[in-house]
Design brief:
The structure is a homodimer. Chain A is of the alpha/beta class. Chain A is built from twelve helices and seven strands.
Chain lengths: 313, 313
């Protein structure tokens, strides 16, 4: 009897050890942390640039109402921020993050920092707007980046927003080396917010992985339409992407807007991310065709709110 | 013969003395300085708030093209300032002044100072925008007003504008006591620009006259529609004002805009100076009816450029 007990205990310990080893080799995927199977296809349909123009706010709110666009991020320094902050306050369940902003990339319509200009002088041009673009000659001071981004987040909280995540307008915080990415990670940790980072980026930007802690959320894939896609192939691009969607968590980074007078004027110097582009995004992601594809491909929509909640478990 | 000469000299001197005395009693009116008779009816049709929204820029540009609206002023701190600055640069003959701005009076769409926020802290609210309104509790520091207004003018020049005059958004520099008006006058003198001041205001605000120098231009009258005028009486209000126009220089302060999605959203919290108001102004001041009234009433349009030029003579 005693021998039997010892044998059972031995077998039990062996099983635990094997399972533990397996878990180490195959830690829980993000999908599993979210309560889905490892091979499930999970999608965030994420609208960027809220607050930039009224048109973008209005189109995204309308797209949210279809349920097919389910997450977005907001540019705090932009003139229409108060409009979307007000909407967010009255829709506390909606999935709004902050689209941390360091550039003012248009020509006829511009904005500048939330922080005092003299404290973030490396971020502004000679007229006091955020730089239109960063060139090799632009010397961005990471300390000023941190000051400005904290000012943006603090204004958002002060105006009643409770963001679910952080990301970076024009990917400036991801594409410009270790120091700026470290600022983003430090801020995300301080405010206890998940940061939009994608595993697929690690190969090209090794500093991303080294700046993250093991507890940080990393989503698996991202898809965004590029300027090389001609307007008439827009829907095809997204359909192909949906049909080829990989298991795991994918974020579609989209830019809905209405091609009205305001947006046409604000973006008229170039077509990229312009009024037509944004109208096409709105049209596809609110279409019956997109809804049907989600069903046909067995794709489930998830939000950053669910991801943040899974990360805390 | 000698007596005749002496008599002639005497009469000549007498005539000069009488004329000089008459001139002293009746100094040249602004109309006369402009080369018109004292009893001529001269009108500036002046659009306010350019730069605030695209809709206001677009409507004013369209109204300019009719020739019936012939002057405007621009809000430098506002997001659409670059659009109208670009237009002004390519239309150097157009009559653009600066609409010196110290408030951000809307709710869903807002802007802040051109100067560094920490240098003009009395001008901004807890979120870094210009105050929505000034209450008796708002302590506006005149030194900070001066710093901010100089920053606005400097940005305008730096971005290629050559303003013809200065005025004050929401009349803040005229309605709030001697100190702020003195700032406006000092800046106008420094930049050698005429300031929109109206003789009819002197009775209610005696500090205006005492802060001005004798060389300063003062126009005679101003007309602007008030919230008490119901929409259906809009055209009647202006027709009556035109039929009763007094001799001298009058400025009609108007607010053209297109009642499109942008302007409706930007002004939706109240009707005053809202989208409908601005569309009605656009409609009347670009109408054939207005053109006919100008002819019938023998009213001549003049600009601030002509006034500034007369002031230099």
């Amino acid at each position: 009897m005693k021998q039997k007990r010892i044998a059972f205990l031995f077998l039990f310990c062996l099983a635990v050890a094997i399972l533990a080893a397996a878990a180490q080799e195959n830690p829980k995927s993000l999908a599993e942390k979210l309560g889905f199977s490892r091979d499930s296809k999970l999608l965030i349909v994420h609208a960027d640039d809220l607050g930039e123009t009224h048109s973008v706010n209005a189109a995204t709110i309308k797209a949210f109402e279809t349920g097919l666009v389910n997450s977005a991020s907001i540019m705090v320094p932009c003139p229409w921020f108060p409009e979307i902050a007000d909407y967010a306050k009255s829709h506390p369940g909606a999935d709004f993050g902050l689209h941390l902003t360091l550039t003012s990339e248009r020509v006829y319509y511009r904005w500048g920092p939330v922080a005092s200009k003299d404290k973030v002088s490396s971020l502004v041009d000679e007229n006091g707007y955020f730089h239109h673009d960063w060139t090799p000659a632009t010397r961005i001071n990471p300390k000023e980046v941190e000051l400005e981004l904290r000012a943006q987040i603090d204004r958002a909280y002060a105006m009643g927003l409770r963001p679910t995540h952080l990301d970076s307008h024009q990917y400036r915080l991801f594409d410009n080396g270790m120091e700026l990415f470290e600022v983003a990670v430090r801020i995300a940790h301080d405010y206890k917010l998940p940061l939009f980072v994608v595993r697929d980026w690690f190969a090209g930007r090794p500093y991303l992985q080294s700046a993250l802690s093991p507890a940080d959320i990393v989503i698996d894939h991202t898809v965004t339409v590029e300027p090389s896609v001609p307007p008439e192939k827009w829907a095809d691009f997204y359909k192909t992407a949906l049909k080829n969607l990989q298991p795991g968590v994918t974020e579609f980074v989209i830019h809905p807007g209405f091609a009205d007078d305001e947006l046409k004027a604000a973006t008229r110097e170039r077509d990229t991310w312009g009024a037509g582009w944004r109208q096409r995004d709105f049209d596809f992601f609110t279409s019956q065709e997109f809804r049907q594809l989600l069903t046909d491909q067995n794709i489930r929509l998830i939000t950053w709110r669910e991801i943040a909640s899974a990360a805390r478990r």
